[in-house]
Every structure is written in structure tokens, then in C-alpha cells.
Amino acid sequence: MKFLLTSAGISNTSIHQTLADLLGKPIAESSALCIPTGIYPHLGGLSGSYQFITGSAPSPLCGLGWKSLGVLELTALPSIKKEHWIPAVQETDALLVWGGSAFYLCYWMRQSGLADLLPSLRSETVYVGVSAGSMVVTTDFGETYDGHNPPVGSDEALGLVDFSLAPHLDHERFPDNSLANLEKWAAGIPVPAYAIDDQTAIKVVDDTVEVVSEGHWKLFAPYSG
What we know:
The chain has seven helices and ten strands.
């Protein structure tokens, strides 16, 4: 599986081109499944999920002109026969994972069985994360990243890539995400940690990590104790 981990989705030409390169074919010839689950705990999450699915969100990830698009709702999967959804995940070209609460999303990835399935997906499959959807596949959320204790389940991320990630660097809507604050957040993390703004993404293919940016970002060295 390949990863395109973003702060705000396909927000500029460089990130858009990187997505097309990872797919290996035009978006118009590619299939995708979108995962809105992480947004539900947030105020306005219900309307936010609708905007994401319909492609009317500020970053229209689902509105890029996919050949086919389906909704993979993680909270529903435990009540659905596995043969009704696992083949669709195995066959899709891209998984589009929306933001919200990283802890809630991580919990439902595990509860639904998707977390166990992800490592076995085809090498051609592209995982596209937005904000929490990017954080969830990293190694470590860091100490109380969002200022709160985890609302459900474990505070451990899925560990599908070997670094940590903080989105929305220096964003006016997220005053706690200043470079100074994120430097403090990264200070206790035992793996490399990236802080990225909304014009930046991280591309991961095999063990190769590449930053794609028309904005600004910072890589923090691992905490060594």
C-alpha cells in the first residue's frame, strides 16, 4: 500500500499530481472508497460528513472525478458480513480517509476490522489521509495531542508508517498548532515527527518518505530519552 498523508486534502497542484502519480492512472479511471467516520464526534460532524461525501468540503477529495466512489462507514462494518465489504476494499484503487478525531477514528478502524486488513492490501492501493485520517496510520499520536484524554479505546496509532504527524501547522483556526507548541509535542515522541501545513503532504512508498509541499513544514528528530 502507498500513502499520501495530507493536512487538508488535495489542496494544490503538487499534491494533486502526486496522487495521480501514485494511482498510476488518471483519477477518472480510478475507483475510491471514502471513510467519513472520524468527523462524527466533532461539533457539526454530521454536516461535515455530508460535505466530505458529496465533494462540497473546502478540500473536495470525493469530488475529484473518480470513476466510481463508495462510502465505507466503519461503525457499520461489525454488523455486516465480511464478504459484503472486504472484497470492495481489496479491489479499490484508493481509500479516502477524512479527518476529525484521530482517537475515535483509530478506535473504529480496529473495531471494524479494517486495521487488520490494511497491511494485506495490494501494493497498488493508495491510502489518502486528511488530518486525523493521516495521523491514524502513524506510529505515535504523542502525549495528549488534542489536549484531551482519548475518548474511546487505545491512544496508540496504527503504526503503518514509521513516523508521527501533526497537521494544520500555523493554521489560524488551530491556534495551538503553532510551531513552538508542536515542537513541545514532538519532544517526547521516540520516532521522527513531521509538522505540516495545509499546503503540504507526505508521500510514502515502501520505505521511502517524501515531502510534497507548496507551503511549509518541519521535521523533528526522535526523542532519545
